[in-house]
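User: Here's a protein and a ligand (adenosine-5'-triphosphate). What would the complex look like?
Assistant: Let me lay out the input and then the predicted complex.
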Amino acid sequence: MDDKYAVFIKDVTKIYGKQAVLKKMCMSVERGTIYGLLGASGCGKTTLLKSVVGTTKVEKGEIRVLGGRPGDGKYAFPGPKVGYMPQDTALCGEFTVRDAVFYFGRIFRMTDDLILERYNNLHQMLELPPHDRYLRNCSGGEQRRVSLAATLIHKPELLIMDEPTVGLDPVMREKIWNHLYEITRSEKTSVIITTHYVEECRNVDTVGFMRKGRLLAEESPKLLLDTYRAETLEQVFLILAQNDVNLKRSSISVLENNAQNTIQVEQRRTNCGTWKRRFTVDKRRFRALIDKNWKQFYRNITGIFFLLSFPVMEIGAFLSSVGGDVRNIPVGIINNEIRDCSNFTSNGTAIPYDYFYCHFHNMSCRFLSYVDDPMIQKMYYPTLEDAMLGVKNGEIAGIIHLSQNFTYFFEKRFEDLRNENSEILDLSQIKIWLDMSNYQIGSSLKYKLVQKYNDFQDAVLTECGFDLKLYHEPLRIDNFYVGSNKHEPFIIFMLPGILITIQFFLGAVMTSQIIITDRHDGVWDRSIVAGVTSMEITLSHFILQLALCVIQTIELMFCTFVLYQLEYIGSLSLMFLLVFSQGVCGMAYGFFVSVISTDHTMANVVLTGLYLPVNLLSGWMWPVEGMVYGLRVLARCLPLTVAIESFRNIFKKGWDLSYIQVLDGFLIGIVWTIFFGLLSVYLISKKR
Ligand SMILES: Nc1ncnc2c1ncn2[C@@H]1O[C@H](COP(=O)(O)OP(=O)(O)OP(=O)(O)O)[C@@H](O)[C@H]1O
């Protein structure tokens, strides 16, 4: 039987959701013959062909292709023995006409000379567009002809073509049919072809009429026409369909019987691939894949622009917009001591007259002169009530209030530090109200005003000749590890998170989008039918993206430490490696997302939906220590959190890999990368 049939299908059932698309389908295609598979739209022709080539897994039944089961590795199928032309063109838009044909020729391990020779013949026969025209610029019919050329290039033993003639003019259709008759005669090629032009199949060896997932009849067109005394195959199909509706089975030989008589085939799940095949890598195919990915990449200028400019834009936006000095915050001033400080000079405002005593003058103006700062825009109000109204109306973000006789009470306050007179204590106070509805602005003002008051007090007391230490709080705080960094602590706190998050999510988005595009174009499946393994496809993408990840990490590090000159203590190369490793982890995550997502929209929803939770839990917006216990544990298990802490330890403490707090950042990235990688490969194997 194996020698007789190129394709033998028995009792195949395929179910999509709740719909059985193929119902105990049987079919046989003899070697060296043309088999025309006909049927109404939606009857299951494409599904059947996909099951034959192994891109769809069937629930039940037996499929034999060229004597073997698809994927068992013994029969070069998937591989060069079969040429598969899917219904969609399944080629990359970034390919030129020549590239598309050469890609498949190389996948089939043909030499470039042989590909060129056959390409020239096919180019002439199929009247292909100019060699260097991009497929995205070709018409639908032109793309279809290029797709056909890519299917025929290696002269396969079995041709499986899903509507190759649709949309082509009658002359071209005739040329294609003549070519098919020619190769079946001279090269003993077996052909399965589906078409909506039923009469095209009048001269084929066998036609199979399909209806609602079943084969109604399978015979030579001549015999069918004679038996049903019909003029056309259309009429035969009509009669068969009516018979089927009336539940009368055709008396013409149905393959079911044939198959049952000729072979006992056990029912089992058709396994369209083996692990062994999936994990092999062939050098020539791999080179063709790398070439394809590279062309897809560099011919997509918009894509390149975004992939290369995003790291710079994102880190640039962060470093330029975050942590800078806040300016021009309107603050209401009520100085009940002196209304107009415009002619104020500080000379003679603090005059010591005794070892312990000092006369003060015009202290309210002197303090307000310290409040002259780019952060603060002074707005004078006559009364406290007016200023309060100003805060309510959003005109000002705070109020500074100085009482009448402020200078007098201020002097009294310093005369006797043990002064317990509450009026003196109260009226010598500068009263400040801050609008804390904007926490960052409120805290910046608070910090600035305390700083300004300390400067003011230090200057005044120094002029009085007092020992400053006596008046300072008995608390001294020094910082470890901050170096002489001139940048805001806020930037320093956030930077590790920003760098690692950018690289992680860029890796994830880049990988998921590229892989989903590849799959949706149909190139992935078509390449697999041509013999490429999932491992080869995955690795070829991985290598190109790894190179991109290196470039993106260099961009991030260059912007941060060279352009913006952020000071660091630890090893630059270690920081580079850590950010890069998170990019790789992001790529693995993107791969996983592409596997669980049916399309771009779903992948984008998953990536965007998880973006904020992962960021919030990664501890760069708010310390992990501030989270409830369960979340803290979860946060520490995520890929970003520990890596960010590890980066901070290198960046500001100068630690190296001998510290577990640095090493764990690398290890968690590696563990997650392996986890996402293995899970994705497992899910792919389950899906196929
Ligand atoms: N991935 C899928 N998920 C769910 N249903 C599907 C899927 N692919 C196909 N179908 C359904 O299976 C049925 C058969 O589809 P198929 O593409 O095999 O038909 P066809 O005979 O090739 O049609 P046409 O001639 O229009 O190409 C259709 O009802 C289709 O909607």
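Summary: Residues 248-276 have pLDDT under 50 and may be disordered.
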